[in-house]
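In the lab's daily routine, each protein ends up as an entry in a very long ledger. A line of letters takes care of the sequence, but it says nothing directly about the fold. The fold becomes a row of whole numbers, each drawn from a learned catalogue of backbone shapes. The protein below has been through that process, and both of its lines are reproduced in full:
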Amino acid sequence: MPRSALEVPVQLEKLSILEEDGSVDEELMPDLDADLQRQVHRTMLLSRRFDERLLTLQKQGRIGTFAPAIGQEAAQIGAASVLQEQDWMVPSYRDSAASIWRGTPLWGLILYDAGWNEGAMPPEGQRDLPIAVPVASQIPHAAGLAYAAKLRESDEIAMVFFGDGATSEGDFHEAINFAAVQQLPVIFACQNNQYAISTPLELQTASQTLAHKAVAYGVPGLRVDGNDFFAVHVAFAEAAQRARQGEGPTLIETLTYRLSVHTTADDPSVYRDDQEVRQWQEKEPIYRLQRFLIERAVISEDDVEKLEEQIKKQIEDAWQKAEQKMKSMDELEPMFECLWNESPSYLNEQAEQFLSQRDAGQSDASSDASAASSDQKDETNDSKKGDENG
């Protein structure tokens, strides 16, 4: 059989609308009302300030390790802004901006970062899955949700967030292949922030772009400027429309940059230089959008100042509420419950031993406190007697 060329239909595009200087391509601009634009700006700024406060709280030892979304706010909110109430959002560990947009309370995110699983529970009726930490493990879940939606013939779609590093995992390839074969209503939202922890993109893949991954699976692929809210919104709105019309999945690569640490256990100065960070800071999403909105008189500089004060108070209120909840959630018994229909004997023994040690410790602490109080009273009485004798 002679060799012949295979004709592979490939149509990949790169989309950007809002430039770094605040100018836009008017022909590509989406028709978004002023209130929505103000809401987007507010949520992006809230997410940024919230992450900054969490970094301080983590350094103080008040919360544990977490992954800031600093620099990726437009990539997340631009995508999540196209979702409707009945749709599913499947986040990874860095998607707090999207979660805030969807309605997850700040105190819940703080609670989760402080080590309480209860904080990962989405509010009642909010169709978000809990935060997924293992890389790429959430991607098949989104395909499953979309499969269920298709079987029910509903108009629901699913959107799953993941990073560039996740495209090196088998979960990603299995999920997108299954979604393509079954023509599922799911959007694969890849945030390419240039690094899988410390591994740069060129050491992860030989593909020219991550959007090229779509070609092998026969689905539309698109690369979009992830620091451009309008471009992200347009790209995901088109993908959502395709999904709702039964035209299957889409892979969108949002090209962005992680301006902060991978997690608070990371030191990015070891693997990237300051010049690279400065170059990306000039492209960062919030002030790019802010300049545009001010120039178009959608907001004013005074509005921004007032907003900063409102956000500062909102974050402080969330921290106070999270602190109160942490103080009230000191019961340890539930860690042994709801694991088995009938608890095995060894688990019952562990629970009994643990709780008895805890009770003994509390008893000792109570005794010490009582003794200290008694000693203090004796010292006070002795002092009074001395004063009377004097």
